[in-house]
């Protein structure tokens, strides 16, 4: 995907104090957007690159933040969304702030250089727990006085729950470049949330079908919705269509309208564009 730097002709730097900035970063690059006080999208930027570690990603993002004119403005709110597989969804009944590190290390690692973050998800009475590099955490809090940091799984879960229907079985996939989040909703309640690493599209289909089997999902009647960077791969669409009826591949028509590129994978940025609506 090419670099993109779109700024609406009506956007002025003076208006930034009434606007909301959202930033996404991952191993495939980083992006940011600005919504003005009327919720109109007035800035959209994407810088693709390949990085093999959180540290490399953070180093590039910090450099960009320091040197970009828009990212040096003051905003009403700032949201930063890391997209990494390392996170943990903890049911509210098991969450204990005093022992959060112990909870997290049940299936994740915590480095001495990490800061643990957590966010309450009211609709499902659960907490999303993750880590960020402490030096980066301190940097963004100094650079952006009003900032919230939350993993991309947060808007993914909220977005899926907003589409939950009674008496149905729904499967949601958020497919990133090296991992995907899987969410299974039965009768408007979460039955399963998990994250899987993958190397090929066949891995995604294998894990999905295995979860369907283990959870007793009716494969013929389940509703499947997919979004994320990997939707550019037609092989995935072909494979999924073999096993599940009418899988839905999400799109963000707003971006396609702004950028005038019919081949643009707009679902890559679904959660970034909706992050400011998540109530953080």
From TrEMBL:
Pfam families: DUF3822. CDD domains: ASKHA_ATPase_BT3980-like. InterPro entries: DUF3822. This is DUF3822 family protein. It comes from Butyricimonas faecihominis.
């Amino acid at each position: 995907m090419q670099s993109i730097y779109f700024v609406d002709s009506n956007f002025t730097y003076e208006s930034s104090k009434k606007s909301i900035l959202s930033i996404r970063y991952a191993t495939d690059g980083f992006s940011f957007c600005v919504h003005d006080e009327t919720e109109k999208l007035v800035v959209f930027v994407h810088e693709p690159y390949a990085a093999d570690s959180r540290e490399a990603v953070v180093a590039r993002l910090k450099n960009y933040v320091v040197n970009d004119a828009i990212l040096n403005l003051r905003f009403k709110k700032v949201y930063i969304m890391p997209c990494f597989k390392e996170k943990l969804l903890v049911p509210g009944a098991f969450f204990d702030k005093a022992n959060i590190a112990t909870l997290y290390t049940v299936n994740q690692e915590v480095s001495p250089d990490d800061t643990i973050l957590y966010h309450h998800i009211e609709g499902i009475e659960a907490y999303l727990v993750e880590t960020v590099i402490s030096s980066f955490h301190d940097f963004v809090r100094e650079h952006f006085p009003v900032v919230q940091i939350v993993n991309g799984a947060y808007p993914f879960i909220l977005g899926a729950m907003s589409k939950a229907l009674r008496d149905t079985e729904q499967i949601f996939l958020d497919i990133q470049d090296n991992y995907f989040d899987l969410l299974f909703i039965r009768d408007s309640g979460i039955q399963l949330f998990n994250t899987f690493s993958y190397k090929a599209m066949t891995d995604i289909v294998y894990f999905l079908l295995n979860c369907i089997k283990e959870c007793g999902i009716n494969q013929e009647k389940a509703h499947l919705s997919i979004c994320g960077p990997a939707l550019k791969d037609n092989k995935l669409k072909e494979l999924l269509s073999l096993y599940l009826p009418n899988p839905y591949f999400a799109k963000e028509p707003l971006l396609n309208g702004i950028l005038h590129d019919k081949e643009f994978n707009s679902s890559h940025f679904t959660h970034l564009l909706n992050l400011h609506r998540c109530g953080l």
